[in-house]
Amino acid sequence: MLKQIVSIFFLLSFSLISSQKSIDHKYAEFNFWIGEWNVYKHNTDTIVGKSKIEAIIDNKVIKETYHATTSKFKGTSLNKYNPRTDQWEQFWVDNSGLTLHITGNLNDGKMILENTINLQKNNTLSNKITWQQNDDKTVRQIWSQSKDKGKTWKVIFDGDYKPIVDN
Description:
alpha+beta
């Protein structure tokens, strides 16, 4: 009986390790965002914030720590690939009280995460945030919102992440 239990445990362990290795590439899809960044208003020299993006927990989770340079605004997010849903998830919280949980995937080189929130009186608010690595290794982030179930979108943030260069 003990041999059977040990054999089953070994086979299950091997199976988990094998399946984990087959999806390791998924955990690296968002690695283009990892780094220490100055965040600029898109296509300007105006720095709006600083962001540190780091891999944690055996490179399975990406942690973002952001703070604005012109106000006291700050926030953090945890980002991870969820093999059960085959999607990326971001959980964002900040000192304004905002909590945001968005999901999605890498599509044509763009990480696109989104959600829809039910508001009062049968209204909804949809969020869509897109990150794309540019040819110069900077990252552009665009956050859009829709109040009409995705018929029209309004950009509420458009930023360029540029690496912090030590002097």
